[in-house]
Fold this protein.
Amino acid sequence: DESKSAVGPAFMDFAGSGLVHLTGGVGALCGAIVVGPRNGRWDESKANDFDGHSVPFCVLGTFFLWFGWYGFNPGSTGSMHDAATANTAGLVAVNTTLAPCVAGLLIFLLRALVLPPRLLDVGAFCNGILAGLVSITA
């Protein structure tokens, strides 16, 4: 059988993630090489002075990614031709909602109540949402 190898089943990139992540990684590497490090990046006196530029754009980008996840995760069930497969896709959509909500709120509460300095950190909230999305996709 051609799909078998000595080390296991052949690699199958189901949704094209290998190509997507390779393209993004190569593009990011080229951009980092062309642009170079930010001014003062290696200055020890400015090591902790780096802040994000736009919190609203961070939140907007997070919600764009979250919205796109609804196309990928339920769509990865492969089909919705009968009630059973549609219910499976619906369950995946519910999990795609609950995981980032819980992860984002957990990180937000940890940053606000437990981890010093105790701040209401919207950037950490967005990172928690993305971590929840990645964890439910894995």
Summary: Strands lie at 4-5, 8-9.
